[in-house]
Amino acid sequence: MAHRVSVKEEDAEDEVMLLECNDESEALTVLGDATPVPPGVVLDKLSAMLSTGRARLRFASGRSWGVNGVVFNTWTSFRYDPDGSCRLVDSADWRTGTREDWAASELQQLADLRKKAHCLPCTASAQPSVLRPRQCRRMVFQFHRECFKKKRAAAKPKAGGEMTIAAFLAVVKERLRGAGEMPTYVKLLTSMKNNAGKGEITKLLAGHPDLVSKIPAPKAGAKPQEKPRATPATLPAATPTAAAAAAPTAPAAAREKKAPQQPPSISKTDAGTARAREAVDVESAVLAPLRSLAPFAGLVRLAIRRGRPTQRLRLLRYLQSPSRAGAGAERREVFLLRRDPSAEFGQVVEAMRARLPELGGDSFAQRLAHICAVADYFTTFELDEQETHDPAEAQQANILEARAWNEGRLQLAMEAGVQPLFVDDPGAPLEQSGYAKRAKALGYRINFESMH
């Protein structure tokens, strides 16, 4: 029988989680079995930790990396393994499949979150399990203590009594950060980079006389600060001698003018907008990455691209409910809505929900299951069903991509037997659209509804 260390003197949370018993299998009974989830669930939780978490620390070990932090007073741990699978542990154990199971958009989201995680302090130590909060806290404390020791060592003056420039800047940064004067520190860095004199640095450090006395002397080889060059308007008239000296350079200037101009560079934003305006193939770009998922998982992922994990879970439960599966199976209809784009979308949603056979239950899940609206792809679903919409310019730039997602969403909804279905895509030619072709191919009756 394994020997257990007493937990009488440990924290209450350690005692509950059996953290000092060195028996992680027993502690895992608190979490239950690992829950396989789509990558989006884990990525949303990681995004929340990177945005709102406390005591965050990044761990790097070869091709693996991870982040620990406190989210809503609960220690949360994320880890990425070399095979592309991810694991996030908070109050439960969430796990994804390997890299082959991920969609391209999810891989891009993971790459963006990894860049964001690179801004966190990093250690090469082994990542502690969040099943041991005390060990997690100790790791964060030790990391910052070592950083503080290094700063103190760098700030110590030389044997001759004069600080190095690096030590001086470290002391100044710590002081100004504590005083909320980081803009002054930025100005100081710029001035020292330009080899400013001691007088200018003294003005920037006004109010900190002890720091003024520590200003290091400039290096012997440092060049004095250059004076700003005069503009062409202030230059004196050229003398004949000066004009003659400048004459040999005229052919070179002419050659520079004749050189072919390089095409303007395209920024990442422009490139993304250009790609978004190209036609998107629904089968290869939207549906193909989702075919390997569970029957309803792909539909949930397309219906809520920018929402919370709990909202995805609500939609999944609604789609799997026996009452929905057996309701109105004989009526397989798709309503393609014609409406003015300026009409209030909320009123349109209420009008469409009134056509559903059953108004009870989760109205949020009903709307996302039965109403395939392009507007959902420009919407971020917040807490308490609040919605944030993208500006009109962003919607116009990405309308073709949103329509492809919405068409794929309709396809998966029909394959799952959801009915009736409503399609809201103002401005699209509905009669010859992919919506109508896909509904006809799957045996759904097509109705064109005018809503003005």
Task: Please provide a written account of the structure.
By secondary structure, the chain is an alpha/beta fold. The protein has 21 helices and 13 strands. The strands form three sheets. The protein has a seven-stranded mixed sheet, with helices on both faces. Strand 10 and strand 11 form a beta hairpin. It starts with 11 loop residues before the first helix and ends with a strand. The N terminus is likely disordered.
Short summary of the structure?
With 452 residues, the chain is an alpha/beta fold.
List keywords for this structure.
452 residues; alpha/beta; 3 domains; 7-stranded mixed β-sheet; 4-stranded parallel β-sheet; 21 helices
> Could you report the average pLDDT, rounded to the nearest whole number?
77
What is the helix tally? 21
Describe the largest sheet: 7 strands, mixed
Question: How is the largest sheet built, in terms of strand order?
Answer: 1-6-5-4-3-2-7
Overall shape: elongated
How many beta-strand runs? 13
Rg over alpha carbons: 31 Å
The separation of the N and C termini measures: 75 Å
Structural class: alpha/beta
How many structurally independent domains?
A: 3
Reconstruct the topology from this structure.
Elements: H1 12-16, H2 24-31, E1 35-36, H3 39-52, E2 54-61, E3 64-71, E4 74-80, E5 86-89, E6 93-95, H4 104-117, E7 122-123, H5 133-155, H6 165-178, H7 182-193, H8 198-204, H9 209-212, H10 240-246, H11 250-258, H12 268-276, H13 282-287, H14 297-303, H15 309-320, H16 322-326, E8 333-339, H17 345-353, H18 363-370, E9 371-373, E10 379-381, E11 387-389, H19 392-397, H20 399-415, E12 421-424, H21 434-441, E13 445-451
Parallel strand pairs: 1-6, 2-7, 8-12, 8-13, 9-12
Antiparallel strand pairs: 2-3, 3-4, 4-5, 5-6, 10-11
